[in-house]
Structure formats: C-alpha cells, structure tokens
Amino acid sequence: MTDQRKLLERALVQLRETRARLAEAERGRHEPISVLGAGVRLPGDVADLESFWSLLRDGVDAVTPSVDTLDGHRPKPADRVENGRWAGLLTDVDGFDAGFFGISPSEAAKMDPQQRLVLEVAWEAMEDAGLPLETLQRAGTGVFLGVYNSDYLTLQYGEPSSINTYTAPGGAHSVLANRLSYLLDLRGPSMAVDTACSSSLMAVHLAVRALRQGECDIALAGGVNIILNPISTLVTEKVLPLAPSGRCRTFDASADGIIRAEGCGVLVLTRESLAEGRRVRAVIRGTAANHDGRTNGLTAPNPRAQADLLRRALADARVRPDQVSYIEAHGTGTPLGDPIEVEALREVYGDGALPCALGSVKTNFGHQEAAAGVTGLIKAMLVLEHEQVPPNVHLRRLNPEIDLTGSRLSAPATLTGLPLGEHAPMAAVSSFGFGGANAHAILQAPPARTGTSTPGAADTDTTPGVGSGTPARAGSGTPAQVGAGTPAGAGSGAEGGTLGKLVLPLSARDPAALVPLARAYAERLAGADAARAAAVCAAAGTRRTHLAHRLCLTAEDPAELLARLNEVEGGGAAVPPRPPRVAFVFSGQGSQWAGMGTELLRREPVVAAEVTECDAVVRELAGWSILEQLADGGRLHETEVAQVTIGALQIGLAALWRSWGVEPSAVTGHSMGEVTAAYAAGALDRAEAFDVLLLRARRAEEGAAGGAMASISLPPDRVRALIGSDRVGIGAINGPRSTVVSGERQAVAAVCAAAERLGASVRRLPSRYGFHSPMLDGQDDLLAADLAHLRPAPCTVPMYSTVTGALVGPGQLGAAHWGRNLRDAVRFSPAVSAIAATGVTVFVELGPHPVLLRDLGETLEEAGVRYRAVGSLRRDQPVSATLDRSLGDLYRAGLELDWEAVLGAAPADVPLPAYPWQRRRHWLGEAPQRADLVTTVPLAERTETIALFVRRRIADALGFDDVEQVPEDRPLADFALDSLVIVELKGQAESELGVTVPLQALLRVLQGGTAHDLAAMIAKES
Question: Which residues lie within the region annotated Disordered (predicted)?
Fold first, then answer.
C-alpha cells in the first residue's frame, strides 16, 4: 500500500509539473511585446516622434505636388509646381551619412535610398529606445523590414555598363534587412517582407512571433517606401485607383482613391519580461495575419476575412473588443474599400459602452505602401501616449455607405480626447495588402503611465477563440514601469556615485558631428536643475553607443556644463580600433595633504567601503584609525600615518577605477606604492599589505629620520659621478633626466651644489627623511626578518617592480624583496619603460596628488611612445576637477567605461538628442572622381602613393575615421576584410589608379602582407 501511495504521489507531482510547463508555454505564446523605441522619417519634415505628433495633432496635410526624382534632386515642398499629380514625399532622398556606417562613397551611390533611410532610422529608433549597440548585439537582435518598391534598381537597368559589384546588394529587397544586420553585427533572424501595402505591419507580426518563440530577444521591425521613378506610379495606377482630387479622403463621401506616399518607420521590440526598468512606449498585446482567400478578384477585399483577422488578433491579445478605444484603420480612401473595412470593424468592435474612434494616417500623408502599417502603428502608439485622437484630415461628410449608427464607433474630424475606461487604453491597427495579405495588431498603453489597471482573467478570457476558465497570466500586459531605474547617480554601496555628478560623454563617428551634438545637448539642458542635468549625463553614458570621436565634459553645476557645451568647437582624433591597455601607477609618500579623500569618501561609496575595510585592518594591527586621520590630518607628517593612509586611498581608488571599467594590464608602484601595487596585482591580501606598510614605515622612520632628498635634472650616471660620500646615494631613477639623491642632509647638499655648478636644475624635496639611502643600511635586513612569515600569492595582474625595473617573477615578492624595496633605489623609469614595451599606452596614477606624471611622460617620450597619462586626485582640488576630468581623458583615449557604475542608472524617461547625421549626396553616376597616378614617377615614390591610397580605401571600408588606424606595416589579415571589400578594393585600384590587379596576387598579399606589400605589388603591375 505504501508503494502504491508513493507511485500515486509521484504521478501527481509529474502531473503538476506537466501542467506548469504547459501553462508556462501558453504564457510565452501570448506574452506581450514591449515597444522600447521608434524612429520615423515622414513627409512634412517629420524626423522624430515629437514632430510626428505635432503634425497629427494639428491636422497637417503633408501632401504636395509630385516631382520626378530620377536625378535625386528634389525642390523644397514650397517650391514644387502644381502639375496635376500629388504625393506625400520626403524632402530629401539623395543625402546619406555613409561614413557613419563605414560605407564607401562608391557603394553608397549604388545603394537604394530605401536601404540608406532604414539604416539611419533604425539607429534613431535604437537611440529612442536607449539601447547601445552592444546591447542589441548581445541580444541576438532580429531584423524584420517591409519593402515593396524597387525604383532605384530599375533606374540602373537602362545603363548596363554602370552595373557593378554594388548594384545587386544595393537594390535587392533581402539586403534591406541583411545590410542592417551585417553593419550592426546583429545575429538574429533577418528578413525583408513584401506583402505590398501590409508589408511593415506583417514584419511587426513576424517579429512578435520570433520574440515569443525565443528566436531573438530584441527585434527591429518596420518598413520603408520611396518613390523615384514615374513609371512605378504608372504601374500602381493600373492596379489601385489614384485620387483625381489629389488627397486620401478616408471615410469621406468624396473619397476617390489613393495618393502615393513615402516614409520609413522602425520599432525596437522586446518581450515584456525583458523590459523591466526601461521606458516602454506601448505594449503589443497581440497580432494576427491572414489572407482574403479567393474573392472576386486578386485585389478585391474580403470583409469576412477581415473580421476573422480582427478576432484572431484579439484572441492572441486575450482582450475583449470593447476594451479597444481607438482603431487605426487601413483607410485606403476609396469609395468601396472604406465601407468594406468599416463593415468588418463594426461587426467585431461595434458593440460596447466605451466609445471607440476611427482614424487613418493616410489622410495626412497618403498611402505609404510598404511603410503604411508601421506608420499607422506608431500613430496609434502616440494616440495612447497623449490620450488624444487626431483629426481625420479632409473628413467633411461621412461616406453614406458607412453606417455607424447604433455602434460605439466614430470618425472624428477634429482633435478629441481618447475615450478612457477601466484599464490602460488600447488601440488596434489594420493593414491590408492589395494582393490579399492582411495584418492586425492590438496595442496598449503602459498601465503605469495612466494609473489604470491591466485587464485580468475575469475580463480577458471571454474573447472568441480563447478557452473559458483559463486564467490570464499574472501581470499579463503589465509593461516595465516608466522610471523604474535607479535615479542618475543615486546608487548605493558599490553600485554607483552620489546624486549630482555631472560628467557628460559625447561621441560621434565624424568629428564634424560633435559641434551640433553639443549644441543639441545644450538646448536639452537649458534651464535644467542639478538632478535633471545629472540624469541627462547618466542617460548619455548608459543609453548611447560610444563612437570613435569623443568629448567628455565635466562641471560643478548645470550652468558650467551648459557653458562648456556651448564652447565645443570640434572633436579630436579618433580612438584606436581596440581599447588601449592600461597600467596603474601607485605613487609613494609625499603626495599626502590635509583633507585628502574627504570629498572622495563622501561622494564615492566604492572608495568609502574599501577604506572602511582598510580601517578595520589597521585598527587591529596598529591601534589607530585611518578614517580618523583622514578626517583630522594632524598626523600626516608621520611616516607611518602618511604611508598607511595613502595606501588605503590607493586601494579605494583602484577599486573605484575598476568598478568604472578601467582594468589594468599592468601595475607598478613607487617606493611604498609598490606595496599597494602588489595588493592590486593579487600578490598580497589586505591584511598582508598593511602589515608590510606598517612594518616598513617603522623601519624607515627609525633609520631615515633626519635625512634629506633632492631631485636633480641629470641622468643617473651623471649623478653617480657627483657622489663623493657613502652617506648619500641615488634614491630614485624617476626619468631619463630625473634622478633623486638621498641620505644625510650635508652629503645631499654637497651633491646638489656640484650639480648646480654643472647647470643642472636641482629641487630640494620637502622631506625630513633620507629614504632609499645608506641611512637605511641594516634596516632592510631587519624588515626582511620582520616579514619572514609573509607568503605572497602569484600575481594575477602583471606587476613591474621598481626595485628591479622589470616584471615580477614567481616567488619574487617575499620578505627579502621588501627589504630591498626599503633600501634600494626606486627604479621607476626602467619599470615604466618595461611596461610600455608590452604595448601599454595609458597610465593612471593612483594617489592623493599626482607626483609622477612628469617623470612618467619624459620616460615614455624618450622611448617614442604615444601615451595618455592621468592622475586621480589633486591637492586642494574638488573631485570633479580631478577624478572626473581624468575619467574623461580615459574616455577620449578609447577606454570602454561602465557608465552605469560611474553615473548610476538613468531614469527611464530622460529624452536625449538624436545623432546629427553628416549627410552627403550619393546618387547614380556620381561616383568619386578618378585619382590620377603618374606611372612615370620612380617605383619607390609610386609605392608610397599607392600605399596611402590602399590604406584610405581600407579605412573607408571598415568605417575608420583616420587612415592612421590602418598602419602601413600592419598585416592586412588583422583587418578581416570580407570578400566584397576585397573585390571592391581591386575595382577601385583598377578604375582609380589605372592599373591591373590580378585577383590571386591580391589575395596572396592580403593573407600575409601589409599595405606596403600590397602597394608594392600594385606599383609593380602598373
């Protein structure tokens, strides 16, 4: 009986687990999709959501006289002459920021303007969503884009001789999505969708399905439409009636056909469960797609199929039709199509107490074909956001074939309030293709924005097609709360700094973009208080992709930040293609000052936590408090107090820099700084580090008191020749011509006098000790004995010792080493040179005041190293003027920082300026001019010229801003050039240099040669 009971219990457990899995699968199948951001480019100079809403709210008619655009030139709307043809046209179609996307001018000229438009609008949508590119890359982002027209490709068919490598990918529909995935390195599904007029909403439907099925975690979905060739309009009017009146008069009695229009819209989508903490513009509760089936004609609509489509979408959304209070209709504006559509809408949505408004964005723009559906969806999203229904432009008298009597439906001709019910308002969007492919979507406003609740189980599961009694998912439809992130700079513990930190990182692909970008931020910050300014800074750090040309502005208050933004006049050189390697340099005694660290500990919780832990160790080992001495500063003249408090601050600063994403590839330390360097390298733990510092300080105090030190601007060999006493010696080799002598006071004075007679500069150091001098003979052995118990661990970060001037080897940091560290000369310059030889180019000095930057710079300049060196704190200076500016220097040097750790998480509702595109004209037949190369010049000179040509073309292909990013002697294999770039490089060399480049020879050089090798091969062939 017991066995049977166990079997029964096991079976019940398995049943419950199976039910749970099925329930979870069902929840996933219907999970709402959050709209995180959107980008638009529409007629009427609409370039963002704000201008889109203004146009809708004000009932603007953006249709203008149509113009042919065979050459890419378009007069401004006000300058277009009435010619009996009308269209909703974009102002410009020939401009494109090709350099931003790393596309050469030759390739850009062959790219369909629809591809160019999608690239820019998709980037704007990412920025609106606050998602840096790295986030999309990690998420396996999918791309789903509607496209229909091929005007640009057909323009090239008349000149077969102009067709080249870029023609096919420049015009293929598939590449519209694939190029976006390729250029942004997105690994999810990537597809172009062509269902004619429903293409973009169908793309959204497919994106929703892919997200729910886990094929991607983020999706870019939308569509684009550009009209260039009048032939395509002729083709269109043979299928769809063009309105003789020149307007789309949806729902109106005088509706007489469509008007063609252009536009582009891209949404950034993710599953609701992944949107927590982010601003959500709207939630897509459900979508559906179907076909009209066999009707009385391929292009004829089917009201039964339309009604079925609406019900399917509602079932997918698990909401009732009477909860929808706005419907963005397909709204063709034809006498037959409008009544058929409204008939289906009334059948499904007509009953209920909550009024429901009908609208169509086609009354503003015309029929945007492949972009129509996403434009309507974005309009519906804005309706929910603003809780207003824009007017249907041109609606004067309802089509008599449309009967809304007795229904809850209306078609407003003026701006009206959105009907609000018990729950967060909902909208529905329709889009129908002229071939019969239809799509429908259900949207909902984020409930947190309106304070209304989300429909629950009791009122969502009565929709036809949804089984009764199945409870709705807990929290179903509840999007991420607006403003759910931590306020900017308000992190606690080790999470971030304090409120009010004003550090603003700005970046661009083109340095010319930095000035307009800075001015746009200045406009955004005008009148902002400290909290709002800090929030903008945090958003700029965490919600923007950090590009090659960079600025980083720091300020004490918003007024200073605003002034700095208005002073920006340009950007510097581009950062290297790979982040530079960093070394931490820990300074020694002499950098301390009263009040050091007071503001730092108050502002940076990371440092405060580290110093507090150090304080506990020192209290136990020495019986005094680091925190008390930092606050008081009265004993900083004592060696023990000075060195231990400096060490504690250095440990805190190291933790802070690391928390900000600055990880050292090497560490070194000057004198006592070598102890904290060993801690940072992982060789000593905290207790061991302070044990060494305390014992070392006591031995130094005992042996070196009463001495003196001086810095002499001569090489060490020249200084040795001046030393005539065993009571003085070389205490430090800080630079090529910076040598410190140390010892008994009179002996040091004698060496200084001799140096001054030679004309050398001499600086007496403010020290009452003769550190690293003969005065410490014997103390080194005593210190080694004191530390006989020390058992250092292997270094986890390479450490370069200033005792030896070289890399620390296994077992080197034992007791004897610290005895030498006390007595021997500090070989700082050799250690820095050894670090630089490994490729480290960025040096961060950690200490209360930068005392080594000058010597470090002279050492690196002597070695011919292009470097960046910064300090951390500075005597009697606020942290914002020192640490923050150093952070900005590292950002400009190319380091990838953890901006959320620096500034805290930005509030979810902080709007930022869009990227200022640096567009240039790119059009058919306007390829870059041929570069003449005189082949009669000597081979060496010809090779040099060609090498520069090759490097520039490779830099252009890879999106580099500076040809120096393609060194002449670097193996070309390092750049991983794809086949298309290689073929185009061959073509460019042949067409622009007038030479023949055998492909096999080119491939051989690319596999193992450099730009110089390639140039030599081309020069030889020429």
Answer: 446-493
pLDDT of 146: 98
pLDDT tens digits, 358-367: 999 999 999 9
What residues make up the domain containing 343? Answer: 31-84+104-460
CB 649 within 8 A of CB 661: no
Structure tokens at 162: 């102009």
The answer for residues whose C-beta is within 8 angstroms of residue 706's C-beta and 6 or more apart is 744, 745, 768, 769, 770
Is 243 in contact with 256 (CB distance < 8 Å)?
yes
pLDDT band at 871 (very low <50, low <70, confident <90, very high): very high
By the 8 A CB rule, do 582 and 665 touch?
A: yes
CA atoms 395, 400, 406, 407: torsion sign: negative
Would you call 11 helix, strand, or coil by DSSP?
A: helix
What CATH code is carried by the domain that includes residue 869? 3.40.366.10
The residue whose two tokens read 């900000």 is: 660
Full DSSP string of 526-587: TT--HHHHHHHHHHHHHSS---SEEEEEEESSHHHHHHHHHH-----PPPPSSPPEEEEEE-
Enter the DSSP assignment of 419. Answer: P
Let me know if 367 is a catalytic residue.
yes
Show Cβ contacts of residue 454 under 8 Å, excluding neighbours closer than 6 positions: 423, 424, 444, 447, 475, 476, 477, 478
- 757-773 mean pLDDT: 94
Encode pLDDT of 205-240 as tens digits: 999 999 999 999 999 999 999 999 999 888 888 878
For residue 356, indicate whether it is catalytic. Answer: no
| 394 is a catalytic site residue | no
Check 30, 173, 205, 330 and give the catalytic one: 330
Strand, coil or helix: 274: helix
pTM: 0.84
Which of 30, 205, 367, 772 is catalytic? The answer is 367
421: its two tokens: 């019910």
Answer yes or no: do 964 and 884 share one domain.
no
Which residue out of 181, 190, 197, 430 is catalytically annotated? 197
Residue 285 and residue 227 share a domain: yes
As a residue count, the chain comes to 1022
Residue 265 counted as domain residue: yes
Q: How far is CA 449 from CA 382, 423, 427, in A?
A: 13, 11, 16
What token pair was written down for 945? 């010229």
Q: Given 671, 872, 880, 886, which residue is catalytic?
A: 671
CATH number at residue 972: 1.10.1200.10
Q: How many domains does the chain have?
A: 3
Q: Are 268 and 209 in contact (CB under 8 A)?
A: no
